[in-house]
Amino acid sequence: MKNTVLHQADTRGIADLGWLNSHHTFSFSHYYNSERMNFGVLRVLNDDTVAAGMGFGTHPHQNMEIISIPLEGDLEHQDSMGNKTVIKSGDIQVMSAGTGIQHSEYNKNKDLQVKFLQIWVIPNQQNVTPRYDQITLNPADRKNKLQQILSPNPEDDGVWIHQDAWFHLGQFDQGFTATYTVKKKGNGLYAFVLKGNLIINGQELNIRDGFGLWNIDTIEIKASSDAEILLMEVPMKI
Hints:
The chain has strands spanning about 5, 15, 20-25, 40-50, 55-60, 65-70, 75-80, 85-90, 90-95, 100-105, 115-120, 130-135, 145-150, 160, 165-170, 175-180, 185-195, 200, 205, 210-215, 220-225, 225-235. It is an all-beta fold and about 240 residues long. The strands form four sheets. Strands 1-20-17-22-15-13-14 form a seven-stranded mixed beta sheet, with no helix packed on it. A seven-stranded antiparallel beta sheet has the order 2-3-4-11-6-9-12, with no helix packed on it. A hairpin with a 3-residue loop joins β2 and β3 (about 20-25).
């Protein structure tokens, strides 16, 4: 019985608006693919590049957990909760949209592009009070290991969301092998390769490939080259 799905980088949807170049792993905006709607509660995985000085004007969200992971440059955030801040590489930002929020995101720099991942997770509670959080991570904590950056628990490492999900970042030297054990029975794992080449349970993966697995207890990750990975454990039932 098949329990994996491979989303190669060049099969993603593309939106090129001039000021924004976005690759959509799952159906989003004008990109629709009935076979690429979600992976469990993981609904959106957008790989965004925003031109210098440009950005997303004020727009609404509701009943979604929204995670931003900057990869390069500085992204200025402002929202209806009164937050005005900048997120940059090394940070992670989370918003629980709940009953409704409005926010904008702009490239703070006039001479450099900004790259970031925009991730939406369907929450396990509807109409919660909107919430914002942002932390700075220590990259050294993911050197040849998996650094937890998100969980369901406010007391744990990283940010937290209204869902039984755990996210980790890893930065591996060529030849390094890591094992990950699923934390909650019934959850699946979705791996997204940020840099380099990896092999997960025998599947070869290249930069920006996505690979989902379910009905498993553990996985083995081997770096074929120096590599970076975002590993997302999420419930498979919405």
